[in-house]
Amino acid sequence: MNIAIIGAGNVAWHLAQALATVGQQVKAVYSRTPKSREDLASLLPGALPVASLDLLNVPVDVVLVAVPDAVLATVVDELHVQPGTIVAHTSGSQPLQVLQTVAGARTGVLYPLQTFSKSKQVDFSHIPLLLEAQDEQTLNTLKVLAGSLSSSVHVVATEARKHLHLAAVFACNFTNHLLGISQQILQEAHLPKELLQPLIEETVAKASQQDPYNVQTGPAVRRDANVLQDHLRMLQGHPRFQSIYELLTQSIQVQSSEDGLGKGQG
Amino acid sequence: MNIAIIGAGNVAWHLAQALATVGQQVKAVYSRTPKSREDLASLLPGALPVASLDLLNVPVDVVLVAVPDAVLATVVDELHVQPGTIVAHTSGSQPLQVLQTVAGARTGVLYPLQTFSKSKQVDFSHIPLLLEAQDEQTLNTLKVLAGSLSSSVHVVATEARKHLHLAAVFACNFTNHLLGISQQILQEAHLPKELLQPLIEETVAKASQQDPYNVQTGPAVRRDANVLQDHLRMLQGHPRFQSIYELLTQSIQVQSSEDGLGKGQG
User: Fold this and answer.
1) What's domain B2-156's architecture?
2) Nearest residue on chain A to B116, judged by CA atoms?
3) Is the Cβ pair A182, B190 closer than 8 Å?
4) Which residue of A26, A98, A116, A182 sits 20 to 30 Å from the alpha carbon of B18, by its own alpha carbon?
5) Across all residues in chain B, what is the average pLDDT?
6) Going by C-beta distance under 8 Å and a sequence separation of 6 or more, which residues neighbour residue B108?
7) To probe the interface with B, which of A111, A122, A127, A169 has the most B CB atoms within 10 Å?
8) In chain A, which residues have their Cβ closer than 8 Å to the Cβ of B167?
9) What confidence tens digit (pLDDT) does each residue in A193-224 have?
10) Where are the domains of chain A?
11) What is the pLDDT of residues A34-77, one digit of tens each?
12) B170 and A152: CB-CB below 8 Å?
C-alpha cells in the first residue's frame, strides 16, 4: 500500500520504518519541524518530507496520524486528503470520532500497544496492533496493513481501547518510573543495577502466569512494621520516594485484606 | 555439606530444594507448624522434620535461618547449635548482628535476591546470592555453599544489602502491585491480560539497558492534561487507584523537570 505518515516522534519513527521493512510504500512524511521530517524520510526508500497537511495532491491509500494526543485535534483540522483515503490515528486514548472532520476520508485507528523510544529498536512482529474503523471495508484494509506488520492484530472499540491504554500506563509508564527509582537507590549505594535484573524478570514472568495480587511478596503484605519503618528512614533524603513507598504499601495491605491474603515472604 | 533449614515458608521452601538438587545434604527442617516441616522434609532425601530449635544433638555444618524478618530475633533467641556451626540468615533487611546471641556459632548471611512463591518453581542458577560473614573463614565456607547453587555470588555488607532490599521493594513488590492493578483494569473491561505482555517485557528490557528516567513515556511525562483527566475519570470507581495514579504522575513530572526532559510518546 501507499502510505503517508503524519508525525516524526517516537511512534511515527518506529512505525514508518517497520512499514518500509515489510515492503509497504511510505510516500510522504509530514512534521512541523523540517529536520524531523527530513531525518525520518531519509530512512524510508522513496519517501518525501512534506511541509503541509494538505495532501490533496499526494495519492496514498492510508494516512497514519501518529502525533501526541494533545495536538491530534489540531492536526486533524488542517488535514486534507483525496476522497476515499483511509485516515487512521495511532492513539490509545483518542476516540475514532476525532477524525470525523477530515472531509471525504474513511476513518480508523491503528494503535500499537508498545512503548517507543528513538534510542531503542523495536521488533513489530509481536506487538499487539489494535484496530477500529468506521466500516467493514476500511477495517479490512487496516487488517491487511496491520497483518503485514504483526501477527497480533485485534479489533477493539474506542472504550475498550481507552481501558487498555489506562492499564498500560500502570503496567508500563508507572512501572518504568519505579524501576528508575530503584536504580537511583542502587546508584546512590554504589551497587550495580544488574543485581536486580533476575528479580525483575521473575516478577514479570510470575505476573504473566498468575494473578499478581495472589503472589504479592515483601514487607508490605507481611505487615512487617520494623522493616517498613526502616525503609522510610532510609528514604529520608527523598520525600517524594517516601510518599510513593507509603501509598503503595498501604494499597498492597488494603488489597491483601480484601483478598483475604497476607503472607508473602521473599 | 550438612545443612539444617529453619523455616518452611517461601524462601526456605525453594532454598532447601535447590540445595538438595545440587547435592547438599539437608539433614533437618524446623518449623513451628508440624505439617509445614513434614511437607518440606518429605521433599528432601534424608531430611528429618524437627520440632525444636535446640540443635545441640544435630551435627550440621550450616544452619540456614529462613524465617520472616518479624520473627527472626525470637527464633534466634531459641536457637542452640553445636560449637563452630555456621548460622546464616537469609534476610535482605536484617543485620548480621542479629545472630550474635547464638552461643558458639559462626555467623553469616546468605540473601537470595529473588521473589519466591510456593506455587512457582525457581531456577537458582542465576539468582544473585549476597553473602556476609563475621570472618574470612566463615565467608569462604558460605562462598562454597552459595557457589554450588548459583553463578552469581556477591559479598555485600549489611548497609549495602539493606539498600538492595529497599530497591527490590520498588522494583519487585511495588511493580507487582501495579501489574495487579493493570490486570484488574483489563479484567473489568473484559480484555485478555496477554495483550499487555509485549509492552511489559519491552519496558523491563529497556530499563535494563538505559536509565528508565531517560526513556519515560506516556501521558504523565507528556503533561497531556486531557488524557490524565480522562484516566482519573475512568478510575472513579477505584479511589485507591486514583491516588496512586495522581502521585506517580506527579512524581514522573517532577523527575522529568529535574532531568530537563519531558517528551515521551507511546
Assistant:
1) 3-Layer(aba) Sandwich (3.40)
2) A266
3) no
4) A182
5) 94
6) B86, B87, B88, B96, B99, B131, B132, B133, B134, B138, B139, B142
7) A169
8) 182-183, 185-186, 189, 191, 196
9) 999 999 999 999 999 999 999 999 999 999 99
10) 2-156, 162-259
11) 999 999 999 999 999 999 999 999 999 999 999 999 899 999 99
12) no
Chain B CB contacts of A208 under 8 Å are 193-194, 197, 200
| Confidence at B264, pLDDT banded by 50, 70, 90 | very low
Question: B2-156 and B162-259 share one CATH topology?
Answer: no
Q: What is A162-259's CATH number?
A: 1.10.1040.20
Q: Which of A45, A72, A71, A64 is nearest to A109 (CA)?
A: A64
Supply the mean pLDDT for chain A: 94
Chain B positions touching A215 (Cβ under 8 A) are: 115, 117, 119-120, 176
- The mean pLDDT value for B150-167 works out to 95
* pLDDT tens string B224-253: 999 999 999 999 999 999 999 999 999 999
Q: What is the mean pLDDT of residues B197-209?
A: 94
| pLDDT value, residue A265 | 41
Q: What is the ipTM of this complex?
A: 0.89
Contacts of B194 in chain A (CB under 8 A): 208
- Nearest Cα of chain B lies from the Cα of A220 at a distance, in angstroms, of 8
Q: Does B68 contact A222 at a Cβ distance shorter than 8 Å?
A: yes
Q: Which residue in the set B169, B178, B226 is minimally distant from A231, CB to CB?
A: B169
CB contact under 8 A, B164 and A186: yes
